[in-house]
Task: structure prediction
Amino acid sequence: MGKGNTSVIGLNFQWRQGNSCDALRAFVFSDSRYIGISAKLHPTLSQINDHLKLHGLRQAQALSDNHLQILFQRLQHELKSEYGLKTYRALENLETKTKQFNFGQSVEEFFKFKHDVSCANSYRSWILKFWLPFFLSKGCEHPKDFKQWQRQAVTHIKSAKNKHGEDYSHHTYGSLTKSLNEYIRFLKEYDYIGEDDVFRLKAKITLEQKKRGKFANKRSADTYTESDLFQIKERIDSIYQNNLKMKLRAYALFFGVCTGLRRGNLLGLRAKHLIPEANVPHFQLADNIVNGWSRGQKGPIVFENSSKMSAFEEGSICIPLIQPNTALLSEVTSFLKANLPAESRLIDAHPDVVGKWWRQIAKECGVKFLSPLQWRHSYATIGALHLADWYRNNTYLLQQCCLHSSIKMTEKYVNQKSSQLLKAFED
Result:
């Protein structure tokens, strides 16, 4: 690696000097010439150069960097494999053509087939970057060949490395298997494969893996309590009492915490949709603003009068202001209405910014940070504890306020490990 060469025949590596660090270039000998490997398309080469940039390493320093040496060995292994170059060039051209089948064209058809769901682009990305390289490296020239590698595909999920060089989290197993299963379903529906070629992949962690702790749940199961919500309100009032801009932002996000709204519906609300002065203080659900990447588009996308689960007539869905109590939430919404134009969004931002802004506010106010998804779990958990006095002991009302399609979904959102549940048994 020091001179840019390797003992593997057909591979060549060169260093390129930069202002703050060096960069590694890779070449593979094929068809009587060396072909340059793009770091933009090859994940391991990309990781190497990212590591060099992050630590400001030069060629000489890279020789003694253990992590870089591990990545370099992996890069050699990937490029020297029998189908490594074939897979790379297929992805590079986005054609993935074989003698029997044009995978690239089928993936684009698959994307259009799934374009009416929010995860279409995610599906396409997993197929192109994760599954096609695997099946093509096995010599598959048609999707009919996939089934014979079904068991190895499960092993691939558990042994493949993510962009950080680590094993994929078991939370990702569902995304990986579903993308392939949906692609197989598409191929069958479009008559690219027959019934005998269809299979459904499942990848679950075993009891032994759980015992070893390798796949311990890294996601926080924490939720806000009622006392947390009161404390957050007090801290916002104290920290931002002389900063109207930040208090409006903090109140708008706090409104999302208290109502458990999805990010898209929180972003879609305007000041006019808050109605704290009514006999039953409430707000009206409005637009849903989502990240366009999931649909293969740039920038946010606005779905008027809709939630994740349904579309509706303007003003037809009203949610009462309940948690942590009506008076507190009415005060918050009244402040927002008094200081924002009626047509102004409560939060004018990209969907990806919501969590980042709340993290900043939580840090400045000295309160616990929980993600927007955990807001929803918090709302369902607190609601379950007060089912009798807040929701008339009617699980359907709690389900509707959670904007869930079924009560089973609401039950899944209740934090069963939370110490809050003990309060349900207090005198």
In short: Residues 120-137 form the longest helix (18 residues).
